Amino acid sequence: xxxxxxxxxxxxxxxxxxxxxxxxxxxxxxxxxxxxxxxxxxxxxxxxxxxxxxxxxxxxxxxxxxxxxxxxxxxxxxxxxxxxxxxxxxxxxxxxxxxxxxxxxxxxxxxxxxxxxxxxxxxxxxxxxxxxxxxxxxxxxxxxxxxxxxxxxxxxxxxxxxxxxxxxxxxxxxxxxxxxxxxxxxxxxxxxxxxxxxxxxxxxxxxxxxxxxxxxxxxxxxxxxxxxxxxxxxxxxxxxxxxxxxxxxxxxxxxxxxxxxxxxxxxxxxxxxxxxxxxxxxxxxxxxxxxxxxxxxxxxxxxxxxxxxxxxxxxxxxxxxxxxxxxxxxxxxxxxxxxxxxxxxxxxxxxxxxxxxxxxxxxxxxxxxxxxxxxxxxxxxxxxxxxxxxxxxxxxxxxxxxxxxxxxxxxxxxxxxxxxxxxxxxxxxxxxxxxxxxxxxxxxxx
Length: 446
Hints:
The chain is globular, with a radius of gyration of 25 Å. Helix content is about 50%, strand content about 10%. The chain is of the alpha+beta class. Keywords: Heme, Iron, Membrane, Metal-binding, Monooxygenase, Oxidoreductase, Signal, Transmembrane, Transmembrane helix. Its cofactor is heme.
């Protein structure tokens, strides 16, 4: 063969296959428009979340394009997927998940109940007692972050904890924002705060590593120490500092916002619904009467809080703290007959199934009885803590945190709302009007 033709073929064949692959991929991409560069549909999503109409907006997308469609969110090509099957997306880092499950195992949780009890009592004494009016959401965020710092990371009160809280809140404030990195934007403030949080956590990791080497502290002393102990099994390498920091930050976000929002909306519900309020108060006061003065709550006490937890689950169903989740594809993925290219992000609104009338009858009605037997619910329909094998390892931690907080709130205080507007917005977490200001009065100690 002519050498020139040979070279030409060698040059053209790769291009031919590249064009074929590109054509095939473009044909199999989900329907939809990615909108304007960088901005895409980000502003629209943020607007409908703030107006609390995001669910309706996504339902319109499903009607128009079907259960899978492409768009652009926060500067990245994105595929939106909906339905119960979408709630199964993603895989966890198995070693990290195993460490979290081990750290939060039942015998460890028993020890945390007493520490949480002390944290909640201290918080109420500092921020509630002697007050006539408080704003619930910011106080609950303070409480849950202090619990995280104390129990999960071993950070005691002081300047370090205060700086970490400040930087963490700034980081959270810009996580769902347009990725325009200019000094005055929320995105820029969030990036800088995130860098500082990571620096502080890396310093803490180094300190914990030295302490572990020198003193041989228990691997379950705190979460960071537990993650440092992931090594030596099946020839696995130890987690890097960056991996530990990444997973610690995930736990911080989940533990801080989920519990604080849940407790806040339970407080609002109890002020609005006398019947639900009476049931919770009766259950909690019965437990309080069985305790001697100053005695801490125990695992057995929490096991008796069945009705209170059903109220909490129904609150999570109707007011889920996490509206949607993102995952990044590490390789080309076939889903629903379409191609999701490597590097794209997948977005799904985990809570859309919560208000599906085919799953929950009269979904707009608050009914704790739905959770008399959670096993009867269809798989991946109630996913406030994930579902199936991917259920959140911190589920039991959040349960203890919530039940202990509600116990002391309802046994020590009465309250009423300072407004009649029961709406809320998302930024991205649900925020009740004005952060839920309430008038409070103390109860006589039982």
